[in-house]
Write a structure and sequence with these properties.
The chain contains 13 helices and twelve strands. It has helices spanning 2-24, 30-33, 42-82, 93-143, 162-168, 172-175, 180-183, 187-199, 246-281, 288-320, 332-349, 369-385, 445-456; strands spanning 147-151, 157-160, 205-214, 217-229, 235-244, 328-331, 353-357, 364-367, 392-400, 405-412, 460-466, 470-478. The structure holds adenosine-5'-diphosphate.
Length: 481
């Protein structure tokens, strides 16, 4: 702005000189002082003209300066208002220098703003990428079925997924940035996380088994604890991942039970066979009749052993999905009739009256004939085994046309099953103690029937029983339309 001040000062000095010269020529004694004759009044006119010219020149200078100043002010105000730099337009040479300097500054400032803008843009992009990566990591953690808990160096929860909230029964929305002891009520788990953080082992890992009391009961978890470090290798907290291994443990226990049950069941007939063979070798069978008895026992025990092994193999094949199922439209009634024909002689031996009420053979169901035959045979065989002499067995097949099902039931007038045993009769190796005297068995027959009906044929098995009055076992299957 210095240039405009100098312009104004010069204009005022010129104007002042012209005004003084003009005014002096008007003074009454001026002509005498200058030694001019009275006749020469032309000088006075000259003074007046000079005065007028100076006034006009002064006014024009002021107007010109004001116009430039106003334009500059407007342009600068515009820059302030919009925040966008536009080059100022140059006027006179002073103005041009001023504007040049200002424009240089503006250009530099503009460049800096542009650079800053670019910097901000790249920071914005980096932030977006970091946010996307964080969300991606969070989405992975949230979708993991294992419980995940992440804490910071102050033992505050930084991240937890729904599985963790369910396992430890806490409110996921309130967990973030809360101290671990306020989020978890499991003292042992808090201790484990603290110990891990205090151990400060970079990249260290600890795997332990831990039992947690959840809303769904006690569960066993494999807990993996890891220390995490930030980019500067400073400890950043602890990550705890809890894998529910309750089922795996149960399966392992079941396998152990199964193996010990199987070996026990196999050992019993084997021991019996061994004992009778030894007696025969030692000549303990005194006559031919006793010898025959021993042979029969050996044969029965060998058959039992064979049945036991077959049942175990069949069940494990079905359970593991290795069994080859050959399902075709079959007349259920034909299968039932075949089984009745095989069982009838055994029933006759005990004077058990057998009756049947079957739907016409045209009704079909999708079935693996051999397997379904095996299931019906097992149920009929049990009915004969657990029904005393002179009892009755009735076999029924009924249509439920509304639900498109065929229901087969086998009712006997046998010893019945106590209510406390009923829920377990389909379990492997389960035998009803009260009925053990009635017949020998393996406790695998009903388990196989259930697998054949439900796993292989997607049907439903049922049982009803009254102690001392009898039992009804049955199953329903879909009809082929
Ligand atoms: P088992 O080889 O011992 O017969 P199952 O699995 O076929 O094995 O049957 C399990 C138990 O259920 C049997 O030990 C028996 O006590 C009981 N049970 C099965 N069927 C009948 C029935 N019709 N009447 C009474 N009890 C039965």
């Amino acid at each position: 702005m210095e240039c405009s001040v100098r312009h104004a000062r010069n204009a005022y000095i010129i104007m002042l000189v012209l005004v003084v010269v003009g005014a002096f020529s008007f003074l009454p004694g001026a002509n005498e002082m200058l030694g001019r004759s009275a006749a020469s009044h032309a000088g006075s006119w000259m003074g007046a003209i000079l005065l007028l010219l100076s006034t006009i020149a002064g006014l024009m200078t002021i107007l010109w300066l004001r116009r430039d100043a106003r334009r500059m002010t407007t342009e600068i105000n515009e820059i302030i208002r919009t925040g966008k730099f536009a080059p100022l337009r140059a006027g006179t040479s002073d103005w041009a220098r001023l504007c040049g300097a200002l424009n240089g500054m503006i250009e530099t400032a503009d460049q800096r703003v542009a650079d800053a803008g670019l910097g901000a843009k790249s920071l914005e992009i980096e932030l977006k990428v970091a946010n996307a990566e964080r969300q991606h990591a969070e989405a992975i953690i949230y979708s993991i079925s294992d419980a995940v808990l992440v804490t910071d160096p102050f033992d505050e929860v930084v991240l937890a997924n729904e599985s963790a909230a369910r396992t430890f029964s806490f409110d996921l929305a309130k967990a973030s940035r809360s101290p671990i002891e306020k989020v978890l009520s499991d003292v042992k788990m808090i201790e484990l996380i603290r110990e891990m953080r205090q151990s400060n082992s970079k990249g260290g890992r600890r795997i332990i088994e831990h039992m947690v009391k959840t809303d769904a009961g006690e569960k066993t978890f494999k807990v993996t604890l890891s220390n995490v470090a930030d980019q500067g290798e400073n400890p950043a907290g602890v990550v705890a991942v809890l894998h529910d291994m309750t089922k795996e443990k149960e399966v392992a226990e079941m396998k152990n039970d199964f193996v010990s049950n199987v070996s026990h069941e196999l050992r019993t007939p084997l021991a019996s066979i061994k004992a009778y063979v030894e007696m025969l070798i030692d000549g303990e069978a005194e006559d031919e009749k006793t010898e025959r008895e021993f042979y029969d026992i050996i044969q029965n025990e060998a058959n039992r052993l064979g049945r036991l092994i077959d049942n175990i193999l069949n069940i494990s094949r079905i359970e593991s999905g290795l069994v080859k199922v050959n399902k075709q439209p079959q007349s259920l009634v034909m299968i039932v009739k075949e089984a009745i024909d095989v069982i009838a002689p055994q029933a006759k031996l005990k004077h058990i009256k057998m009756s049947e009420q079957l739907v016409p053979a045209i009704y079909q169901t999708m079935a693996d004939k051999d397997m379904l035959y095996q299931a019906v045979l097992n149920l009929l065989s049990n009915a004969v085994k657990y029904t005393p002499e002179n009892g009755t067995i009735s076999v029924q097949t009924v249509l439920d046309e509304g639900r498109k099902k065929v229901i087969t039931s086998i009712s006997d007038s046998g010893v019945g099953i106590p209510p406390k045993d009923l829920p377990f009769v389909f379990d492997k190796f389960y035998r009803v103690e009260a009925n053990n005297r009635m017949a020998k068995g393996t406790g695998l027959g009903l388990s196989l029937v259930k697998h054949i009906v439900e796993t292989v044929h997607r049907g439903r098995i049922f049982v009803e029983s009254n102690v001392g009055k009898g039992t009804t076992f049955g199953f329903e299957l879909d009809l082929v339309e």
